[in-house]
Amino acid sequence: MANRIRSRPYRERGSPIRLSRKILVETWLNVRRNGVYSVACIAVAGISLLVFGIFLLLDGSVNNLVRNFEERVGVSAYLKETVTPSMAAELQAKVVTWPQVEAVNYVSQEEAMDALKRDLAGFEDVLTSLMVNPLPASLEIKPKSPQVTAALVAQLKAIPEIDEVQYDAAIVNRLIAFASYFRIAGILISLLFVASTWFLLSSSIRMTVYARKEEIEIMKLVGATDSYIRYPFIIEGIFYGLVGAIIAGVLLVPVRSVLVASLQQLSFMSAMAPDSTYQIWIILVLVAVGSFLGAISANLSIRRFLHV
Question: Which of 229, 230, 244 is nearest to 294 (CA)?
Answer without folding.
Answer: 244
